[in-house]
Specification:
Length: about 270
């Protein structure tokens, strides 16, 4: 694998992890709605145990890594390089809008839609970075299973972000909220189960045992284990469902991005 885009990929997923961790711990506005915030305030909040400063610091580091990977790979693969950079910029902009939504400064329906938009843009950034990092074709016996797993994993991820955003903005839980919230939860679970089943089936029909094949299996297994824990935490406290939310988001992006890249690379093998 190419190291620079791989570093960018890791930092993008780490940024998604810490962003979800701030939500899972009930944080998000510890530094107000301004971004990135004064360095002194960042350090003070970080010393006080807040995760929000770490998320903002990782956002900057991911941006630097993506820019470096963009410049290093532009001539080799211009579409993926440009897609990675553009997606990350859009992710940063929608992340700023999430702060405004939490502060009640963003009008509906944008205050709800910005969450899944941010999630999918972060996933796109990660997928483009991973596509640049993987520099060889990877054969699979049933690549169509990867395509299905990628689609349903991305769908489940976006619906999960919508659920999180709806509860944060409207200050309601799934059980007492409007019917659309419960419908979204049902669709989220169904999409997640489809993604896990298709990914595991794709792994069974793999034509090798490389790192990407193993990542597909690990991510699918992680989602199967973490998903129910996240649901229990969400039902007990929608505002701060806990640490597993971050693991859930990271595993979702790992599953979707590895399936996307594995499918694309298998088509070229």
């Amino acid at each position: 694998m190419r190291r620079l885009p791989l570093l960018a990929y890791i930092l993008i997923v780490a940024t998604s992890f810490t962003g979800s961790l701030t939500a899972g711990l009930g944080e998000g506005l510890d530094l107000g709605s301004s971004w990135p915030g004064a360095p002194a305030a960042l350090l003070a909040q970080l010393a006080g145990g807040s995760v929000e400063p770490l998320h903002r610091i990782l956002t900057v580091l991911a941006g630097v890594a993506v820019l470096a990977a963009f410049l290093a790979n532009l001539r080799r693969n211009a579409p993926a390089s440009a897609g990675m950079l553009a997606s990350l910029i859009a992710t940063a902009l929608t992340g700023r809008l999430i702060l405004l939504a939490l502060a009640g400064q963003l009008s509906p329906p944008f205050d709800l839609l910005v969450y899944p938009a941010n999630n999918l843009l972060a996933l796109s950034s990660a997928s483009f970075a991973l596509a640049l990092a993987v520099d060889s074709e990877i054969p699979w016996r049933r690549p169509v299973l990867l395509r299905g797993a990628a689609f349903w994993a991305a769908t489940a991820s976006a619906l999960g972000a919508f659920l999180l955003g709806f509860q944060k903005v409207e200050r309601v839980d799934v059980l007492s909220g409007p019917p659309v919230l419960r419908a979204a939860l049902g669709l989220h679970i169904a999409a997640a189960l489809l993604a896990i089943a298709l990914a595991m089936s794709a792994y069974k029909h793999r034509a090798g045992n490389g790192a990407l094949q193993k990542a597909v299996l690990w991510a699918a297994a992680a989602q199967a284990l973490i998903g129910p824990v996240v649901l229990i935490g969400d039902l007990s406290s929608y505002w701060s469902p806990g640490f597993p939310v971050a693991l859930h988001t990271a595993a979702a992006h790992l599953l979707a991005s590895t399936c996307i890249v594995a499918y694309v690379r298998s088509r070229r093998a």
